[in-house]
Amino acid sequence: MEITRDITHLGEKSFPHVAAAIGTFDGVHVGHQRIIRTVVGRAREHGGTGAAFTFVNHPLEVLQPDRAPKLITPYPIKERLLKSLGVDLLVALPFTASLAEMEAEAFVEEILWKRLRVEFLCLGFDFRFGKDRRGTPDLLRKMANALGFQVEVLPPVTVDGTVVKSTIIRDLLHQGKVGEAARYLTRPYAALGEIVPGAGRGRGLGFATANLVPPEDLLIPDGVYAGRVFVGEGGYDAAMNVGVAPTFGAGGRRVEVHLLDIQEDRAPGYGQAVLVTFWERIRDEVRFASVEALQAQVARDIQRVREILSQPSTASADWALLGSGSCASMKCD
């Protein structure tokens, strides 16, 4: 997959028969996937280029900063997901004030037509673009007819009668309902982190942990989770605590990861990048009256994690980010 964050010289390169998807694609959920697969399929049929046109940051960070949401898929994860869907060319622009001021007509003619040289464009039913969000599917169809390219606007995608939207997924994650969110994402919610030194208490308790400072955009609440952690080329089942370890006195928020059945010589070291996937929330984070009570509960948590991850719905699932390459290639910032 070729990636560009600068469209200045895009028109100078040769990309045959460009079929492009356009959108913010936060979450790369099942609705977004249908758009991407439509353009990739179209490109394969015509010997062309399947492209995705998106933004590194959320447009609301510029348009209405006080309303800008935390991202479901930070850019490094979104990039890997789009690659796993077969995208040949990723145009990922920083959304800037100057881009926000561009009229819809100028955006279509100058960027999509002259620079990207799009022949087929696919978008979701609710996508808007250009200054004051004047760019609608109807305007796009009208301009496409005049310029000579095709447009397909896909209808809403529903799961069990609910229209899949990033806002719904974000709300579920805020509530810790990671299992429900995964049904709309078609994969577990994930975050990138870096191993940092901890207090060393886990090993003394009999449950060694790797510690991560959670990213600022982590959407889930504190609690204990079942999940999987990918380190380099390997993936491991894990019991994870997100929170402040209140039994030992409140501290900074951390993600403490206990990797199940990992050989000690393969445990990740400080500074190593990891990809953490959250499959199910088990319980709230609580303060225990004694270390012994904490140890007993952690043992029960680990058993519950094993039960969850041994189920066919999770054991057979493949996380799309591992489709090619290792998580080490994804930067945590």
Helix content: 25-40%
The strand line-up of the biggest sheet is: 1-4-3-2-5-6
Strand content: 15-25%
| Secondary-structure element pattern, one letter each | EEHEHHEHHEHEEEHHEHEEEEEHH
CATH superfamily of the largest domain: HUPs
**CATH topology tier name of the largest domain:** Rossmann fold
Features:
alpha/beta, 14 strands, Elongation Factor Tu (Ef-tu), domain 3, 2 domains, single chain, Rossmann fold
In short:
The chain contains 11 helices and 14 strands.
Explain the overall architecture.
The protein is an alpha/beta fold. The chain has two domains: 2-159, HUPs (Rossmann fold); 189-329, Elongation Factor Tu (Ef-tu), domain 3, CATH 2.40.30.30. It contains eleven helices and 14 strands. The chain is elongated. The relative contact order is 0.13. The mean pLDDT is 87.
Secondary structure blueprint with pairings:
Blueprint: E1 2-4, E2 18-22, H1 30-45, E3 49-55, H2 60-63, H3 75-84, E4 89-93, H4 97-100, H5 104-115, E5 118-124, H6 137-147, E6 150-154, E7 158-159, E8 162-163, H7 166-174, H8 178-185, E9 189-196, H9 201-205, E10 210-212, E11 223-231, E12 234-243, E13 254-259, E14 273-283, H10 291-309, H11 312-315
Helix pairs in contact: 5-6, 7-8
